[in-house]
Design goal:
The complex is a heterodimer of chains A (about 375) and B (about 210).
Chain A (H helix, E strand, L loop, with lengths): L4 E2 L9 E7 L7 E7 L11 E9 L7 E7 L4 E5 L8 E10 L2 E4 L3 E5 L10 H22 L10 H16 L3 E6 L6 H20 L3 E2 L5 H17 L18 H15 L3 E7 L3 H11 L3 E6 L5 H7 L2 E4 L1 H10 L3 H38 L3 H14 L2
Chain B lengths: L3 H19 L8 H33 L5 H25 L8 H32 L5 H16 L2 H6 L3 H36 L9
Classes of the chains: A alpha/beta (about 375), B mainly alpha (about 210).
């Protein structure tokens, strides 16, 4: 057994009520320890260093140090590949001061295990199921012949005008995905917009330049452009070198695209993807060469820059809706309808939440009644658990 | 079959990832991480494709004497320089990221200043974009101009000197109307992402298969 040593200075007192349990909602090999702070622990790391955690495979066996947490901590997750699921372990939590240490009583046995369901994600599952059911319902309804309305999206309607204008001016079109990667949803949304732009370029025999930041996106974009040209009967227009990879460096990419714009003077520029600080550098250069610019991004921080610098901007979700808008098949439109209904439900829910929260505060203040406040807090808590 | 196989793979991958999000038990628990590792491996190989594309593009520019063809020589020289210094540093120090290495010398003394120069250009572009956006030609533009002026004044000491409440109004603009609009757009973006993912998993959205 470990011994306690007290020299001079602050007396090390052990933490109280130490408990050890299998870490919930995990993939196993993890045990969580919790305790109440030692009376000597005021949270000051100079006076009280912290807690050292020891583990053993038997209550009387040799304990091995598995971690240290500073003063003020009351929890330790022993997530270690050494821990075998189903095997029993024992723990000691040691208070450590400058002058000595004091051990808690041995806790255990405790065994770790993997869970089959993450109960903290029940809220996500419920909302995901609700959204999915609504979307699937409207897809089926649309498929059965229901009439669905989609409002005009000016940025997408302007694609044909932009390509036509470039053609008349004898200038190429430039299309950029920004700093998007292929495993991101907005990149797939952008690919469908590129497909439409490439189709129009094929129809009008206009050159399309697509500089890239990511080689995987480059491969997908090359195939998309090639397919669109082929479908419009102009496979000869395709040149792989008009779809070049520039660099995987943010400002290097901005410099490369700026240089391309200054040399090629595109008549129309499409910024469709995810952008960071380079958004305005690109869009202002596009403006300086006199190009009509159509932007679209899900990056909330960059939307104002595009709105200021471009002629049209697809704001957030409009980008995701682009493929449905450009290919208005019943199934595609049905999914949009489901999304809209979910959004309406969220708005109603937010309004109800705001009213409930306000009523809770008022009832507590004027009638000393806490029922509504507690209900509101529980709802907030349910949504915050993740 | 050319279209069905990718749709089946997409469905299975998407469905497994969704399931794995709720089931931490092995082998599903770390499935997403495993897919990301696969993605990283594929990404590594596609860098070769990127290099090939970059070389073709610049060699074409040089051979056809297109406008700015001289800069392609600079790019090719830079590419060769980084490769040579990278290998040299690797051989000498066991890693190209050793601070004394020639590779890191190129990075610190060439690439970092170039990145900083491009970033610094943003200040000028913000001015020109703001000039256009803030011209009070419509009611909305005037509103934007007034709000922007208050927010900017609220961020600097002179704002408080003009009127002590300007920082308060500035904070209110940022925390109430601005944040509400931002969150509204974000909710739309997240929902749009979920529905788009659903369309892809169910095989309704197939543009990526072209």
């Amino acid at each position: 057994m470990l011994q306690s040593i007290v020299i001079l200075g602050l007396l090390a007192q052990p933490p109280a009520n130490v408990i050890a349990y299998d870490t919930p909602n995990d993939e196993g090999s993890s045990i969580t320890l919790m305790w109440e702070r030692s009376p000597a622990d005021s949270g000051d790391a100079i006076l009280f260093r912290g807690y050292e955690i020891y583990r053993s495979e038997s209550a009387t066996g040799e304990f091995k140090s598995v971690g240290f947490v500073p003063a003020g901590a009351t929890r330790f997750d022993d997530g270690n590949s050494e821990i075998q699921d189903g095997k029993e372990y024992y723990y000691i939590v040691r208070s450590v001061t400058d002058s000595g240490f004091e051990d808690s009583a041995v806790v255990g046995p405790v065994a770790s295990g993997a869970q089959w369901f993450n109960s903290q994600r029940v809220n996500v599952l419920a909302i995901a199921l609700l959204v999915s059911l609504l979307v699937i319902y409207y897809i089926r309804r649309a498929h059965a012949g229901g009439r669905l309305f989609v409002r005009k999206i000016a940025g997408l309607d302007a694609i044909e005008d932009a390509v036509g204008r470039s053609t008349e001016m004898g200038r190429p079109i430039l299309y950029s995905f920004g700093l998007s990667y292929l495993n991101e949803v907005w990149t797939l949304a952008s690919l469908s917009i590129l497909y439409r732009v490439a189709q129009k370029c094929g129809e009008y025999s206009t050159r399309l330049l697509v500089p890239h930041y990511d080689p995987l996106v480059m491969s997908a974009a090359q195939e998309t452009v090639k397919q669109a040209y082929t479908e419009t009967g102009r496979p000869d227009l395709y040149d792989e070198r008009d779809n070049p990879f520039l660099t995987a460096d943010q400002f290097g990419y901005a410099a490369g695209v700026d240089g391309m714009m200054m040399r090629e003077k595109p008549g129309a520029v499409f910024w469709q993807g995810y952008f960071y600080a380079e958004s305005l550098i690109l869009a202002e250069t596009g403006h300086s060469v006199g190009a009509i610019q159509i932007a679209g991004t899900t990056s909330v921080e960059q939307i104002p820059f595009f709105v200021a610098a471009c002629d049209y901007t697809l704001i957030g979700e409009e980008m995701y809706a682009a493929s449905c808008y450009l290919r208005p098949e019943p199934q595609m439109l049905g999914s949009l309808k489901g999304e809209d209904l979910t959004k309406a439900m969220i708005i109603v829910f937010l309004l109800c939440g705001a009213v409930l929260g306000t009523l809770g505060i008022l009832s507590e203040h004027f009638f000393d009644y806490r029922g509504l406040s507690v209900l509101f807090e529980r709802i907030v808590q349910w949504f915050n658990t993740f | 079959m050319k279209r069905e196989v990718p749709i089946i793979i997409t469905f299975l991958t998407g469905f497994l990832c969704v399931i794995a999000f709720f089931i931490p038990h092995p082998p599903l628990g770390d499935l997403q991480q495993r897919f990301l590792v696969w993605y990283a491996i594929v990404y590594g190989f596609t860098m070769v494709l990127g290099l090939d594309s970059l070389l073709k593009y610049n060699v074409k520019k040089i051979t056809q004497r297109k406008e700015g063809w001289q800069y392609s020589y600079v790019l090719l020289f830079g590419l060769a320089l980084v490769l040579v210094t990278g290998f040299q540093s690797w051989l000498k120090y066991g890693t190209p990221f050793e601070l004394r290495s020639s590779f890191m010398y190129c990075y610190i003394h060439i690439i970092v200043p170039l990145q900083a120069t491009m970033f610094a250009l943003l200040a000028f572009f913000i001015s020109s974009a703001a000039y256009r956006a803030f011209r009070a030609r419509t009611f909305e533009a005037t509103l934007l101009l007034v709000a922007a002026a208050i927010v900017m004044l609220g961020r600097v000491p002179i704002g408080k000197m003009i009127w002590s409440e300007i920082p308060v109004v500035s904070d209110w603009l940022l925390n109430i109307p601005q944040l509400a609009a931002k969150r509204g757009i974000q909710i739309g973006v997240y929902l749009g992402g979920v529905v788009m993912s659903l369309r892809i998993i169910l095989g309704i959205e197939r543009t990526y298969l072209t």
